[in-house]
Write a structure and sequence with these properties.
This protein is mostly beta strands and 101 residues long. It is 10% helix and 43% strand. It is built from one helix and seven strands, in the order βββββββα. A seven-stranded antiparallel beta sheet has the order 4-3-2-1-7-6-5, covered by helices on one side. The N and C termini lie far apart (49 Å).
Length: 101
Amino acid sequence: MPSKLFSAEQVSYGAAPFTKVQLGYNSRAKCLNLIVPGSTKGALQVVSGFGDPEGPQVSLEGETCTIGSAVTARFINEAVAAEFATCLGFAPPAKVPEPAA
């Protein structure tokens, strides 16, 4: 299966910010790659080990997704961020129904 690509407004890898980039998730290799437009070096693997017990944690808050301790990605909207997080295996907590008044 080829990588699934997501366009990100900004990705921070450690302390290095990248704007208007793509993130490619390769499910077979269980890794996330950073693709910088115009780069002649190809993609940079930024996170690996998805699906492993000691693999990276994925969290989602609005338009921002945090992957492990080194990568934060901000997307154009919450829907794209949620699709990206779900692709990486993020499962949002179940909503508890509010009691009827």
